[in-house]
Amino acid sequence: MSEKKADKPSRAAADVDALLTEVTSAAKVKPARAPRPQPAPEAAAEKAPEAAAPAARKTILVRQVKSGICTPEDHKRTLKGLGLSGPRSESTLVDSPSVRGQIRKVRHLVTVVE
Fold it and tell me: CA-CA 20 to 30 A from 113: which of 21, 58, 70, 101?
């Protein structure tokens, strides 16, 4: 009976060793990645006129007129997101719905110059 008990741990140890060798051999083999396709030079030339188009977008000049000291934390984060650091600081931003929403949130602290 003692032979059976001694035999079981050796089987378990052999199974563990076999499993470890499978895992380590599988971990060493990495699947090869396909190389990224390089864009054609003419594709980059086509995108150049599109890059000039956003520069023609309307901009807004925002000026902070009041301090954000006694305001809620989300108002302070909004001021920082607008690029305003304190009273009399200005920031030029692209006119977009998200920027207008941020300005509306802190409208008691800022003025729109342009």
Answer: 70
Predicted TM-score (pTM) of this structure: 0.52
The residue type at 70: C
Nearest to 93 by CA among 57, 48, 45, 51: 57
Please report whether residue 17 resides in a domain.
no
Question: What gap in Å lies between CA 110 and CA 84, rounded to an integer?
Answer: 9
Which residues pair with residue 63 across a beta bridge? 90, 111
Provide the token pair at 27.
Answer: 């971990």
CA distances from 33 to 23, 25, 37, 73, 109 (A): 21, 19, 12, 46, 53
User: Above pLDDT 70, what percent of the chain?
Assistant: 61
Task: Indicate the number of domains in the chain.
Answer: 1
For residue 27, CA distances in Å to 18, 21, 24 come to 14, 10, 5
At 37-65, the pLDDT tens digits run 777 766 555 555 555 555 578 999 999 99
How far, in Å, CA of 50 to CA of 54, rounded?
8
| Domain of 74, in residue numbers | 59-112
